[in-house]
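FYI - complex with pyridoxal-5'-phosphate, inputs then prediction.
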Amino acid sequence: MKFIQTRGIDTNKPAKVTFSEAILDPIASFGGLYVPEVLPQLGSAFLEKHKNSSYKELAKDMLESFEIDIDGSVIDEALNLYDKFDDPSNPVPVVKVKDNLYVSELYHGPTRAFKDMALQPFGVVLSSIAQTRNENYLILAATSGDTGPAALETFKNRANVKVACLYPDGGTSDVQRLQMVTEDAPNLKVIGIHGVFDDAQTALKRLLASEAFKKALQEKDTKLSAANSVNFGRIIFQIIYHIHSYLELVRQNAITMGEKVYLNVPSGNFGNALGGYYAWKMGLPVEKIIISSNENNVLTRLIRDGKYDLRNSEVVSTTSPAMDILKSSNVERVLFDLFGEQRTRALMEDLEKHHCYELTSDELAKLQACFDADWCSGDEGKKYIKETFENDGYLMDPHTATCMKSYETRSNPEIKSIIYSTAEWTKFSPVIANALTGEVDTHDIDALKSISKVANLPIPPMIQELFSKEIAQKSIIEKEKIEEEILKFL
Ligand SMILES: *Cc1c(COP(=O)(O)O)cnc(C)c1O
């Protein structure tokens, strides 16, 4: 299978690339993205075949249907990382919360957030491609909290790959910061900068575009790459758990094979939701995909009104910070699938030039046939966290809680819903403690202890250990010094 481009082709890039090429250089012609030439059609026979499969068996067969240029043995090694999740026989438990409402828990990996679902196997795949080509890669990452820990964890001690991870000092939770600065491996460098997430992101973009930096890297025999969520190497691993979650409902006799369900996805950069969309196109019975947002509700407005409008919009900080995003990159792949390359290129150019694009009413109807959406404020989210805990005995994090609102407002209660839970309570504990008891904790450790007591849940060892681990990464610098610091590390 080859990969084609969402905005058509210019003369600099080949018209089609392999999976490996799309991974190493994820930006396509005119700033577009790579997408599979065709989506494999798995249909109901595939679902029937995997009714009783393990996660890994299902994953292997689904990945093989894409016919990618990665050895079966590498895929096996990548998928074996799911054995390190809490329950090796089922890395993604699906839990009934109440009638017709199920939560698919995507956070049982090493860093307790859903980024592990894709980044864990992606680390093996990327390192293997680098080794096959006998090339060395520097992965640059800027993080507001969840991607950094997951990227460091997956590339730790892997051959032919180094990671430099930038985070805003003071701009992440204690747990997220400790997950990064306690990572100790010779191929990892974590850099705190004085500034906010945007400063880290801007510095990263400047480095990615800098010829001088590329030249300095060349002298060190190193190429640049990125592990951000537009990389198809991550997306492909995000199709699997949607199919798995559906089959879990069949196994639990909650639905019969073929019955349609809602997929309700707390969304930021739209990778998770895109995985669900592809699963649907490949044959999963879906009623609709419901997109849940926080106060940064640009996706709600797009799906309800057909307008992607960033004029007068600024990112606001919320209680669900992993969704504080206005340019939701993976939406482009849905536009391409629905409207084709010419229209996608025109829309994306409008967004870049005028900070706005508008769909025609026909186009909006097509989009709404697949998606619905709502957004949830931080206060509403806290109310849902408390209510769901008190009434249903289920504790959810602030990202997952945004789905409760859209579940109530946008779904037909006769049809079963799968809500995707993207983080464990341990990652955003001050907000959750505040929701449950009203207390205001400035330190995660206090909030963790209090939730653990109120909810009678143990603090998982990989979180507990963070507070006594040695700090291995001590760089906290001005943003002007980043380049120098990275070159010193290399
Ligand atoms: C990254 C993240 C999201 C958003 O996922 P996208 O695939 O970018 O839409 C939601 N919740 C948490 C906790 C995350 O870390």
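The domain at 79-112+233-466 is CATH 3.40.50.1100 (Rossmann fold). The longest strand covers residues 161-168.
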